[in-house]
Amino acid sequence: MKVTGIIAEYNPLHNGHRYQLQQARQTSQADVVIVCMSGNYVQRGEPAVLDKWTRAQLALAAGADMVVELPFASAVQPADRFATGAIDLLAQLGCQTVAFGSEEAAFDYQTIGQKIAALPAQSAAFVDYQKTYATQLNEFYQQTLNLSIDQPNHLLGISYAAANARLAQPMQLLAIERQQAQHADQLIQTGAYASASAIRKVLAHTPVDLTTVQPVVPATTMAALTTQQGVQWPQLWPLLQYRINSTPLAELRQVYQMSEGLEYRFKKVITQVDSYEALLQALKTKRYTYARLQRVCLYVLLNIKDTAIQQTLEQPYVRLLGFNQVGQTYLHQLKKQLTWPLISKISAKLGAETGLLGLEVRVDRLFEQLTNTHQNFARQPLFYQGKDVE
Amino acid sequence: MKVTGIIAEYNPLHNGHRYQLQQARQTSQADVVIVCMSGNYVQRGEPAVLDKWTRAQLALAAGADMVVELPFASAVQPADRFATGAIDLLAQLGCQTVAFGSEEAAFDYQTIGQKIAALPAQSAAFVDYQKTYATQLNEFYQQTLNLSIDQPNHLLGISYAAANARLAQPMQLLAIERQQAQHADQLIQTGAYASASAIRKVLAHTPVDLTTVQPVVPATTMAALTTQQGVQWPQLWPLLQYRINSTPLAELRQVYQMSEGLEYRFKKVITQVDSYEALLQALKTKRYTYARLQRVCLYVLLNIKDTAIQQTLEQPYVRLLGFNQVGQTYLHQLKKQLTWPLISKISAKLGAETGLLGLEVRVDRLFEQLTNTHQNFARQPLFYQGKDVE
């Protein structure tokens, strides 16, 4: 049985994602396509515009046979850790191939992944406070491997390749050319494709006008965006402001990734700004990317400490969000070979603070509060009856 | 120079308070009347319906010569600690008399205060989990002193008397009969007097209709209530809900007054309720009064730990909110004899986390966020020009 994995955020799922799902299945001749998807918070440190159950449903409707959740501890991380979490999860699920979108699909990811995996860990050496970690990593790749990375998906692809090369049994890498829209496009052009960030830009406007979104997303996404309440950072701003103001320095310092005295900047600027965007602007230095700052803001908001992240990473699991008949059949076969616990329903024990999914349950409480939905307890994996991709 | 002190919350200031100010001055033949007033959070664990500067202004307009702030660490406390903080502050300010409203003005507060002050501390003995601390204290007073306390202001009066009796040089006690409305009255009756809680009840309704409030408050209070945005618990509810959900048990346990496993109840009920009132109902047991629970909710919301309270109590100060010409003249004379620091303006050092007013600044940040006003930095004591009581 041929099994192909896709690493995704679907924030939200658009025509390009659906194309990628189809291409991945076709090119790899997969019997089963598994999507490993971020939960309610995404890699760049933002809440997802639709909750994880809705996005899992969209993935199933767009052709996925199974959707599993990439835990918060791996999802809200820089590219290398995000990639490691996702690749390990897909390998655990028995995937022989991992497919991903790329601006440079012809690139030899396999070889570069092996080269990077062979390098000693360098992060400790990136101590130039005038440059971001990402910039120093790029410079290091440039110097050692003559590798130049300009595109975010290219960086993710290389990160997948490196994480994959570290596996005992690496998977096949399948880069799929991105359609038309490049990731950073901020305006929706005419045509069937636009980037998720361009779509989020539309959603951020009040009142939301979905006219330009309709041509670039499947009907299921359109329906979800029309009927469901999403979460975006501006909505979280009063809570973040309150949190920073009510947290003494010594406590703020304990937040995950709050390093190099960043807590002093937080306490200083919070009294000077009146919006989330202004906060980010005020925090920005040459040392930190916006993505990094957004992740730290999310760790502050969700009260995330190092130990919570470490505990989750040390006790991996497979969290099912949904599947169709094909996925269910494969699941039966997979169960015997899984070494990680398979989580379908969350018991009180699993969801308790010290439980396997304690962190996931806790970070989702805010999502539950804001959307008035259940995200963990009282939920079970979706079963998708549809046979065809819409 | 005769100096009389009044302990108040003015939440909000009504005709009964103005009458009390007049009576206190007249009966004690005071040259100077000093009000010691709660800041932005009051004794029963609620935010004040008008901020402390506004309420200080109302006090000056109603006849006070000087207004000082009772620090959060003393203000948001049970009657005995509230009384101790306020009495110590008025004694520091050179008051010879302390006046207070009472439902039983003819009662011999002086004698009972001395008797209570002579008793050994009993709080550690009140361990019946089926009864509130207040109930057990009342029962103890009943047994040892044949004293029965039914009215909240009577309890406060007795607490003032006890705290006063513990002073090296006790002040004169002056109980002033409350006019008409009893404190617990929940409806505004016809006439010039109503309780502050009856007024707050009107303010809690949306939209607010101040028609019934007008006859029972001075014009200055009416103007403030008409033009200023207050804060009430329902407005804080989303923040409290978020706070409880994002705080692990081990951290919640560190909150001031979170004892006897109360943190487990908080974590359990927070997922079952959808309003502040419902939360209080769900938390209520025979062991805790609503006032106690409200204070714990406030400590949770404001992230108050034991150490922060202790540090403030151990380093007392006099915080000026406002004065008139009489107050200013007295202040000049007073400065020489003060043993506590006199705070007019808050410097960066005083307001820093470890500074003398660090806790005050921190708890007020939330008020600043919600009302979009400055509460500490950039404020200086009010100078009231008006010569007469309106």
From TrEMBL, chains A, B:
Gene of this entry: tmcAL
Annotated NCBIfam families: PRK13670.1
Native organism: Latilactobacillus fuchuensis
Signal peptide start and end residues: none
Functional summary from the UniProt entry: Catalyzes the formation of N(4)-acetylcytidine (ac(4)C) at the wobble position of elongator tRNA(Met), using acetate and ATP as substrates. First activates an acetate ion to form acetyladenylate (Ac-AMP) and then transfers the acetyl group to tRNA to form ac(4)C34.
Enzyme class label: ligase
Cellular localisation: Cytoplasm
Catalysed reaction equations from the record: cytidine(34) in elongator tRNA(Met) + acetate + ATP = N(4)-acetylcytidine(34) in elongator tRNA(Met) + AMP + diphosphate
The protein's Enzyme Commission number: 6.3.4.-
Pfam family, one: HIGH_NTase1
One GO-annotated biological process of the protein: tRNA modification
GO CC list: cytoplasm
Annotated ATP binding sites: 7-20, 101, 153, 178
Family: Belongs to the TmcAL family.
Name this polypeptide is given: tRNA(Met) cytidine acetate ligase
Entry keyword Zinc: no
Keyword terms of this UniProt record: ATP-binding, Cytoplasm, Ligase, Nucleotide-binding, RNA-binding, tRNA processing, tRNA-binding
HAMAP family: TmcAL
